[in-house]
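Transcriptional regulator (GntR family protein), pasting as requested.
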Amino acid sequence: MLNHQSPVPLYHQLAEILTAAIESGEFAPGTKIIPEITLAATHGIGRPTVRQAIDVLVKKGLVQRKRGSGTFVVEPQRQVNLFSLAGTSSAFQQLGIAAEKRIINPISLAEVIDGPENPFQGKEAYQFSRLTLAEQAPVLIEDFFLHKTLFSGIETMVITGTSLARLVADRFYLKPVNGRQTFKIVTLDLSQAKLLGLGGKDPVLEVRRSIHFPGVENGVYSKILCRTDKFSFSQTLGGHSND
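Structure tokens follow.
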């Protein structure tokens, strides 16, 4: 019950009670929560206070209002350990999620024109881009840049439907030793937005990742655009491969 003598606002107390009920499974995903008028009567508060509490749950991503129907508990986002050295293919496989890789730009050796953050800027490197779909929904755009000496001959190999991590290990006998990643929120250009099924002003997470191999820093550099409304992305430090 609510403590009307507490300095904690009543709407915040109610939000905590409802959050606990959702997290415990009392309100299962997809179910309709108790109507506002009932919550107000049960806790001896006004409906505006109840609405404030529901607003908190909406901002947390726990519930969704449906006009004319009520407020429903949303399905929790699954956490994909996308940013370990184990790579993106492995991340989805570990959750049993069917992921499809589609090549956007085929692999080629060319001068890199990207920006100062890219260690291959102004140099020749192997480059290709791919789109990842998880459960048939587009979730990632990945641009890869590979060291031209370390990966000499990769342009003759089949990369469609192949894990880059497996290719690096099985064909080049390479094992990454460590890496570095940076994160920021960006907006998409129109072509990127179309590929991810988003609007041009929708923000996405951009990850830039450098992978180092024995004796060679920045053997692989990648830029990943992540659609975050389908999955939550987490990070595990360490690992043994790159994708």
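Note for the archive: Strands lie at 63-66, 70-73, 79-81, 99-111, 124-134, 137-147, 178-187, 203-213, 216-226, 232-234.
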